[in-house]
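A favour between colleagues. Tell me how you read the following sequence-structure pair.

===
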Amino acid sequence: MHFDPSAHAVRAEHPLVIAFTDLIGFAKQSTRVSDAELAEHIDGYYARVTTRITGAGGHVVKFIGDGALVVFHRAAADAAVAAILELKHEIDEWLAELGWDCRLTAKVHVGDVIVGPFGGKLDVIGREVNAAAMLDSTGVALSVPAFRALGADMRTRFHKHTPPVTYIRLEDPRRFRYRPA
């Protein structure tokens, strides 16, 4: 199921997979290169994120520096998480080839959000967007609702981490900071 931005000309509540990606170490790396090199590589990052997310049926809502907010239909949770796992591998490998000491992190949540035009552009608004943003991740982390939205095969790629309860990739370190609500 593909997310069609043109279908959201009017604000309405929709159940979505909401994900934030971010490049850990990007701010430090940005001080080591010229603005021109930084611009070239951030453009490459944006292109890779857009290609991977839209190719899996999702939508890039916006980029915020080295971060991105992406959404998928709730029914496409497995495809969403698979795309994010593939994106992490792709971006981490690409950054290593560049010699950049950065890596992609992702936070994935599922919930009802308001989708529609805000300030003339498509956006997603609501508590569930904030819940996704507040997840802590050193790799790829899923909220409990995101984990529960997955099929059995995809669930095997994650294990439970507490507190607060999140699910992280088996390959990711268990270092998390607790962020009280």
In short: The chain has a mean pLDDT of 90. The beta strands are 12-24, 59-64, 67-73, 103-118, 121-125, 140-142, 158-161, 166-169.
